[in-house]
Amino acid sequence: MSLAAERVPWRWLAEGRASRRLVLVVVFVALLLDNMLLTVVVPIVPTFLYTTEYEGANNSAAPAWTEPAPPALKAPPFSSMFSYFDNTTVTVLGFTSVVDLVNGTESSPPPQAPTGSPALPSSCLEGEEFLAKENIRVGLLFASKALVQLVVNPFVGLLTNRIGYHIPMFIGFIIMFVSTVMFAFSGTYILLFIARALQGIGSSFSSVAGLGMLASVYTDDFERGNAMGIALGGLALGVLIGAPFGSVMYEFVGKSSPFLVLAFLALLDGALQLCILQPSKISPESTKGTPVFTLLRDPFILVAAGALCFSNMGVAMLEPTLPIWMMQTMCSPKWQLGMAFLPASVSYLIGTNLFGILANKMGRWLCSMIGMVVVGISLLCVPLAKNIYGLIGPNSGLGFAIGMVDSSMMPIMGYLVDLRHTSVYGNVYAIADVAFCMGFAIGPSTGGAIVRAIGFPWLMIIIGVINIAYAPLCWYLRNPPAKEEKIAILHQECPMQTKSYTMPKTLRDFPLTDDSDAEAENAE
Fold first, then answer.
1. Helical spans, DSSP H, in 52-127
2. What is the C-alpha to C-alpha distance for residues 150 and 144, in angstroms, rounded to an integer?
3. Fewer beta carbons below 10 Å: N end or C end of the chain?
4. What residue stretch is flagged as signal peptide (predicted)?
5. What is the residue range of 229's domain?
6. Into how many domains does the chain fold?
7. pTM more than 0.85
8. Measured on CA atoms in the order 64, 69, 71, 72, is the torsion positive or negative?
9. d(Cα 341, Cα 339) in Å, to the nearest integer?
10. Helix intervals (H) in 253-387
11. How many whole angstroms separate alpha carbon 102 and alpha carbon 104?
């Protein structure tokens, strides 16, 4: 009985390692945590830098006139406790100082009035020039993750072809855990920058290995589309939870709290990978994959990668610039800076799960083309919002449309490799992740500079028009040619240069026997 009880966990592990659904769960959780860390910093970093650098510098620069303020503020409570007919009360001097402030006879209080900004709402922030410069700095910090991921992705694709997907997935978990802990205890811009760049390395290992693993496990195109939609649902859920979770925890608990929670969840993900994936096992691909540069010369793969890049570039430009624009124009409190992204995240979650199935029926090329048009229209509507409620419609449309594009283009990448190249998926999903990262690298890094030069509304107009203009190119993905069709096209265009090969016929030895004709017919 005891031996049977001991064998139950091992039997469960053996069944789990053979289950495609548990592999999908591992990839889902990895993408969830990666994108929670990606977006949890969006509402935290702008206000954290403003608090530590701008307010800290101003408070330390003017200690002379800020210290007399507390006695004046303590005067009204004491004056209400004593009788106004008692001329011996000292607290009456607090009221005479206010009278002197109005008459202008007191020398120290006048500079206190403009700094306190009593005419403005308490949530409005000062330092217009600092906020304008902060657009660029925050944009570069957000873009550092994607820039590093852009460089690392091709190497991860080659590594997965050599040693398989399991070990790179576990390496990604370790790096992501270190990055999350570093975010929790970083107090300067430089340390936050390093933590963000380190996250890019871990994200590269997790996303390339995870998507490649799914494509290799789900070989049927319809099943692969559904699996990719579910996995991208993990990405969407991470984006959904990240920004609101970060803003609420930062407002009411503290800066380190959301990152410590994510570090604990990352440890659980690592334990799940140890049980299911066997990261110590090296399992290289049985066939050699198509080189990255050969895939990059395929125009159909480039069109699909461009759709991923430009559709995600819109939300990548919003991440560093929208919170600062809300701080300047809407005087939004901290918790609203993350909540503004909630409609986009919810609709992205719906879009990826809905169109993971529908895109295969209506045509993935049509789904992605409509999605890019809706992305452009939604971005054009963002500057029209006057408060956080005005952002619900544009952000919902943006998230839903990006979900349409992502859930269509990810399966198309695997389908194009099956159709036109060798069915090894590490390199093609490295290209897909590179396209995704290019959007998140170019978007924040250039978005902050464009906002400072011509303003936030013009930034939205530029990226919205780019998405609408790119959408018709998705038509070329309607019916991509296969290998045989490509050879036929080349044969028609260059008949003198192409070569055709036929199987050699079997030769018969002489002299021929009476049964030789029957043997020849059977051989044919």
1. 56-61, 69-81, 92-103, 112-116
2. 10
3. N
4. none
5. 6-54+127-485
6. 1
7. no
8. positive
9. 5
10. 256-276, 292-296, 299-329, 334-339, 342-362, 364-381
11. 5
Residue 415's pLDDT band (cuts 50, 70, 90): confident
Question: Is 204 within the bounds of a domain?
Answer: yes
- Residue 187 half-sphere exposure toward CB, CA atoms < 13 A: 3
Q: Do residues 302 and 434 lie in contact, with contact meaning Cβ atoms separated by under 8 Å?
A: no
**Residues 316, 444 contacting (CB under 8 angstroms):** yes
Which burial class, exposed, middle or buried, applies to 79 when counting CB atoms under 10 A from its CB (0-12, 13-18, 19+)? middle
Cα of 273 vs its chain's centroid, Å: 22
At residue 425, the 3 state secondary structure works out as coil
Assigned domain for 69 exists: no
Q: Cβ neighbours of residue 183 under 8 Å, at least 6 residues apart?
A: 37, 41, 192, 195, 196, 199, 259
Over its C-alpha atoms, the chain yields an Rg (Å, rounded) of 31
Closest residue by Cα to residue 62 from 105, 111, 19: 111
CATH of the domain at 421: 1.20.1250.20
In a domain? residue 84: no
Grade residue 396 by pLDDT with cuts at 50, 70 and 90. Answer: very high
Q: Residue 290: inside a domain, yes or no? A: yes
d(CA 232, CA 120): 43
